[in-house]
Amino acid sequence: MVSISIDELKNVVAFSDLPDEHLQWILDHSEYHEYKDGIQIRKTGEEANDMIIILEGGVSFYLDVHGRLVYYYHFTNDTLSGGVTGLLPYSRMKLYPGCSFAVGKLRLLELHKKYFQELEQLSPDFIQRLIGYMTERAKSFATTQLQQEKVSALGQLSAGIAHELNNPASAINRMSSELTKRLKLNYELTEKLLLHKTSGENIKNLRSMVEAKSISNNKKLSALERMNKEDEITEWLEKIGFIDSQQTSATLVDAGFSPAEFENIKGDLNKDAFFQVINWLENLLSSQKILKDMEEASTRISTLVSAIKSHVHMDQTNELQNANIHTGIDSTLTLLGHKFREKNITVNKIFCENLTDIPVYVGELNQVWTNLIDNAIYALGQGGELTIETICNDKNVIVKIIDNGAGIPPDVLSRIFDPFFTTKKVGEGTGIGLDLVNRIIKHHNGTIKVNSKTGKTEFVVSIPVTQAQ
Description:
By secondary structure, the chain is α+β, with helices and mostly antiparallel strands. The chain folds into 3 domains: 6-122, Jelly Rolls; 160-305, no CATH class; 318-464, Heat Shock Protein 90, CATH 3.30.565.10. 51% of the residues lie in helices and 20% in strands. The chain contains 14 helices and 13 strands. It has helices at residues 6-10, 20-29, 116-122, 124-195, 200-216, 223-239, 245-255, 259-266, 271-311, 325-335, 337-343, 362-379, 410-413, 434-443; strands spanning 30-35, 40-42, 50-65, 68-76, 84-86, 98-112, 321-323, 346-350, 358-360, 385-392, 396-403, 447-453, 456-464.
């Protein structure tokens, strides 16, 4: 048994001014241990039973975040940690939430929690000092947690944004290639029109018809209606001997043409000239559709960029700024759009009409919407329904996020706001815990409540319309 002297224990910051008799009591009731550099001294889920007193070396603590060890804190004999770690008096920790490893040659004493009450009777002031170290440790952990969760959330959000931007960007790339082919084909088809002596009047009439169709053809056809119209045009084209009518009929239906209109176009044109007119018209309509699709894809990209700018707006400031709650919610819905489409989720928005800008920490609040909406998506099955409702009054803006998923089990419901608690699998979710959501809402002097049963889970966030500076 290694003998530790009172003077050596006095070198530990937290114990430096304790009377010798108190230090001797601690030595008499503690166990001595040594560890080589890098050796694991505590495991995730292990019972927390002892206060650890560091005599030499240090302890690095890694939090278990969804099965991944994340560096959080380094304990050593300094003024920050006082040379103590592990379970401290009045701590509510039951199990270690992560792993601890020895740094350098580690020499320590372990004082079991069964002696805490006796230690408090021996030296109440010392217990208060330990509580102070524990409080500072909790603050440091909270700050680190916030940073880690923001990084994790950024990673998840970036992946979603990349997914959202990739689809329209890839579509534009494909369509630009197709449009290049179509424009090249236009030269060939126009040349054939001229060879068949198609008059300028015929081209003018075709142009007028196409322009009229682009204005009037706003009716969206059902799948059955579209199929019937395509069959009708296909049969008519095949009847007059036109080859490759399937693609042509689909394009003509998109533009709103019917067989009767082609009878008028045909007029006194011979069969070969009329076929060239059909080919030229199909190429023109397809080119126009490609341009329209490219416009929609580029608009989609612009919308996403705008949503990103709105979502991270003013996250670089710690000051309250007047903002519209609906803008933050809408930008979040846009950025999570791919997840809604993957599960075919219906989103209902019931927004109050007289909402005014209120003072908030915009970047923080957008993290709240991201977490709550992402959690709802996670809880919903295929074809689920998400409802977001806002209620305005003179004192508060209330946001309700409701999903019709399976609900939160009662044994879990009471723990969802606990630090580090999650029901999601490794690598899923935003990385922003409901503990952080709760803290952000409290930072706004607001409240968050949850009600859940099978088929309905409702988170209710209330934020005051005025804030004390």
